[in-house]
Design brief:
Length: 451
């Protein structure tokens, strides 16, 4: 079920009725027209009717029209204050007919009410609907790393989206939330549980999905399938088999074609970043399959490098968007995605013995250190903090393994080794089964013996 929409009006409710008809018949919303839809509300108080309607809804369309005396009804201003307080400004959509003079209180910003250009009544109704639907394409106005940290809120949004109580966000917003929910599942280590949640969500409601929501759910499920099929190669590297790679690569190319450029929100920017970053990672996983011949491995590592470059281009576009800047997303999720990409590029260039690998290792180390500094213990969930620590010390160990990078500064190396030793002492006591911690331990012993 889509949102329930309260439609407030002044003057007459003809436009309100027209908007209700289109939203319910074409777009599956449930609408309540303020007061009575037949305009016979003489004997019904605001408290008895309108407040009950507002409490049933979670969005509002407020249609500003003059009465016969040339003024806007005071009731509309009462309703406007109520819906602003209950739903928040993002969920209140105010319209007037372009060219009509509407007298607003002196402390109101004129930009609050959108002028809709129309010659006829039908055009006006269509214009209000178009404005409302455009306003559904909102960007998420919170730092994405802090959203991931409070992921239970996303689960609540999924659960309520098609419930009888009505959704708490638009399909467009939920499409964005799901991309971060999938990322959160990796950071918290409960991919299987979240995969089942999204499978059930798709099974029950896929025929009600908007285009963006359908793309988002499928992006997440495709990547979950890859994660569940990762295995160890004979050399101990994480890898996947050809059929897993082919299925994911084909699907991802389709997603990239299906994502539509959209000036109203940032789903398209986020989706492109997520898909290209995932493709970069999955290409590297298949490249590490030791059943591939040398030519196939080279081709895959090459593809991985090219996809990494494409992902960085997508990140640049995302970072230029106003919502990304306002929410400071470069400190958090964008930094983490860059760290993933830099490390994958390091692995690829290392495969070719290209000196460029050194730059990418330096870059991923820098991003890992930045994440630890910006999200230290106590500011973020301990599980995420521990992941940041583990990934930083894995990168630091790889850095110390590269003699080309490490300066002949014995003091610096000794301090790094002391850091790693203390981390291992703490981590191995807590969990000796983690393959990445085991790898850090192996690297530490090699570095220590050869320093």
């Amino acid at each position: 079920m889509k949102d329930k929409v309260f439609i407030g009006w002044s003057g007459n409710n003809v436009v309100a009725n027209g908007v209700k008809k289109i939203l319910e018949e074409k777009y599956n919303y449930i609408c309540y027209i303020g007061g009575n839809s037949d305009n016979s509300s003489d004997n019904i108080s605001i408290g008895d009717t309108v407040i009950k309607q507002i409490k049933l809804c979670n969005q509002a369309i407020m249609i500003f029209q003059n009465r016969s005396d040339g003024m806007v009804s005071n009731n509309l201003f009462f309703e406007l204050g109520f819906v602003f307080a209950k739903y928040g400004a993002k969920k209140v959509h105010c319209c007037k007919k372009a060219g009509e003079t509407i007298v607003l209180p002196s402390d109101f910003d004129n930009s609050l009410v959108e002028p809709v250009s129309a010659e006829t009544l039908e055009e006006y109704v269509d214009g209000v609907v178009k404005y409302f639907l455009g306003r559904q394409k909102m960007s998420i106005d919170v730092n994405k790393m802090m959203l991931i940290n409070n992921r239970y809120k996303i689960k609540d949004l999924i659960s309520s989206h098609y419930s009888e109580n009505g959704s708490k966000c638009s399909d467009y917003e939920l499409a964005q939330y799901l991309l971060f929910y999938q990322q959160a599942s990796q950071m918290f280590g409960d991919e299987k549980k979240v995969e089942r949640e999204l499978q059930n969500f798709k099974r029950d409601h896929q025929f009600e999905f908007s285009e963006e929501l359908s793309i988002s759910v499928n992006i997440c499920l495709s990547f979950f399938e890859v994660l569940s099929n990762i295995r160890k190669s004979g050399r101990g590297e994480a890898c996947i088999d050809a059929h897993v790679y082919k299925r994911f690569a084909d699907a991802s190319e389709d997603y990239l074609e299906d994502i539509v450029d959209d000036d109203a929100g940032t789903f398209d920017e986020w989706a492109r970043v997520i898909v290209t970053q995932q493709l970069n990672y999955v290409q590297m996983l298949f490249a590490q399959n030791d059943e591939n011949d040398e030519e196939m491995s080279d081709l895959l590592f090459e593809k991985c490098i090219n996809m990494g470059k494409k992902a960085f281009e997508c990140i640049k576009v995302l970072e230029q968007s106003t919502p990304c800047k306002e929410n400071n997303d470069s400190v958090g999720i964008v930094s983490l995605i860059k760290a993933y990409l830099y490390r994958n590029m390091f692995v690829c260039y290392k495969h070719f013995n290209d000196p460029e690998y050194a730059r990418y290792l330096e870059l991923t180390k820098k991003e890992r250190k930045s994440l630890l500094r910006n999200f230290d213990k106590g500011t973020i969930d301990s599980k995420i903090h521990e992941n940041f620590r583990m990934e930083y010390y894995l990168t630091l160990s790889e850095y110390l393994m590269c003699k080309e990078l490490v300066k002949e500064d014995r003091f610096e190396v000794k301090m790094y080794l002391e850091e790693i030793k203390n981390y291992l002492k703490e981590s191995l006591a807590a969990d000796d089964s983690n393959i990445y911690i085991s790898r850090i331990n192996d690297y530490y012993n090699i570095i220590k013996d050869n320093k």
